[in-house]
Amino acid sequence: MLAVRPDDQKQQAAPGGDGARVLSIDFWRGFAIVTIFINHIPGNLFEAYTHKNFGFSDAAELFVLLAGIAAAFAYFRGFSSRPARTVMRIGLRVWTLYMAHLTLIAICGAIVAYAVLVTEDTRLLEATQFDQIMGNPLSATLGVATLGLQPAYLNILPLYVVLLLMAPAMMSLLRVSPWLALAVSGLVYTGAQLLEFTLPAYPTTEAWYFNPFAWQLLFMTGLCIGSVLGAGRRIPVGNLLLAASVAYVLLALVWWRMGWIVDLSPVPRFLWDFDKTNLSLPRLLHVLALACIMSRLPVERLLRRTGAGRPLILLGRHSLPVFCVGTVLSMAATPVRISELGHPALDLLIIPGGIVVQLALAWVLEWYRGSSSTASSRASRAPSASADIAQA
C-alpha cells in the first residue's frame, strides 16, 4: 500500500513537487471509496464481501490513513518553507470540506424527506437520524452548522475537517521529529481512551461518531509515512515485522469469522475491544498490519506498467466529488431497497450502476483537468495582446 521505489518517487507529486502522483495512494483511496459506497447501503448483496467482514478494521481506517499520507504530500514541504501560506491552503481545504458536508446534508435530507412523503413511513427518518432535524429544526440547524449533528453515514467529512484543523500543529511536531510527533499523538490517543474525552454532539447529549482525539493517531501515522515518501525514501518493513503483520491479519480473519467475544475487564477496554468510535487498538493495529503487508508488494510498479488499476486510480484522484456523489447515491438507494424488500436482483442493478456513475464522474473530471491544463499551457506559450501592441 505504501512502498514506492526511490526512482519512482522522484516522479511523484510530493509536497510542493510537480511530478506525477503516487498511483498506489490513488488506487487504495479509490478502493476505500468503492467500499464505503457499498457499506453505506445496508444489507445489500455485496456488503458481505467487503473487507470489514474479514478483519478488525474497515474502509474508514484506510480512508483516514491515506488522508494523512495525502496531506503530507500536499502540505508538509510547503509548511516547512512557507508555513503561513500553507496554513492558508489548509484553511481553504477545510472550508471546501465543510461546505461539501453541508451540501450533502441538504441533498440527503431532501432525499429522505421525499421518500417519507411518498411511502408515508417515518421509520426512514429514524434510521438515517434525520428525525432530529424534523423534530427540533432550530436546535438542529445550529447542530448541523457546528458539525454537532451528523446524520447516519454523514460523519466522515466532519472528522476530516477536524483532523485537517489539527494538521498544522501535527506538522510542527513532525518537523522536529517523527518520533516526537507520534509520541505526542499517542499520548493524546491514550488520554482520549482513558479519560473518555471527545467532541460533544448537539442537540443530543451524545458524542461524535468518530472521536477525533482517538482517530488523530492514525492520521498522524499517515502524515509521518507521507513525509518519508515525499522525501523520496522508503519505509523499511523487515521480515520480522512482515511476519508479525501477516500473523495478526490471519488472527483477525479467524477471530472475526468465528465471532469470538471476550471480556478482559478490568484491562482498559480500548486495548481489547473493537470500538470504531474510539478507534480501539485492535482496529488500529489491523489497518497498520495491512499497510505493512501491502508495502512489500510491487503495487506501484504494477500500476505503472499496466492499466488494470486505472478505474480505482481515477476514483482516488478525484476522491472528494466522487465520495460526495457516492454518498448521495447510497442515500437514495436505501429507501428503494426498503420498498422492494431488499431483493437481490435490485442489488445487482444498484451497486454496479452506482459505481459506474462514480467512474463516469471521475472520468469527466479527469478529462476536464487535462483539457484545462492543455489550454493553460497553450495560453502561456502564446504572445499576449499587449506584447503584440508593444511590438507593432
TL;DR of this structure?
The protein has 392 residues and is an all-alpha fold. It has helices spanning 6-9, 23-39, 59-81, 83-119, 123-128, 131-135, 137-145, 156-176, 178-195, 212-230, 239-258, 281-295, 299-305, 310-317, 319-339, 344-381, 385-391. The longest helix is centred in the last third of the chain and has 38 residues, at 344-381.
SSE arrangement:
Layout lengths: L5 H4 L13 H17 L19 H23 L1 H37 L3 H6 L2 H5 L1 H9 L10 H21 L1 H18 L16 H19 L8 H20 L22 H15 L3 H7 L4 H8 L1 H21 L4 H38 L3 H7 L1
Architecture overview:
The chain has 392 residues and is mainly α. Helix 3 crosses helix 10 and helix 8 packs across helix 9 (178-195). Residues 3-12, 14-19 and 384-392 have low confidence and may be disordered. It is globular and about 60 Å long. The longest helix is centred in the C-terminal third of the chain and has 38 residues, at 344-381. The protein has 17 helices and no strands. The protein is 70% helix and 0% strand. It has one domain.
The gyration radius over C-alpha positions equals 22 Å
Q: Count the strands?
A: 0
Integer count of domains: 1
Shape: globular
Report the structural category.
Answer: mainly alpha
- Poorly predicted regions are 3-12, 14-19, 384-392
Could you tell me how far the N terminus lies from the C terminus, measured between alpha carbons in angstroms?
58 Å
* Most strands sheet: none
Spell out the helices and strands N to C. Answer: HHHHHHHHHHHHHHHHH
What tags apply to this protein structure?
mainly alpha; 17 helices; disordered N terminus; disordered C terminus; 70% helix; 392 residues
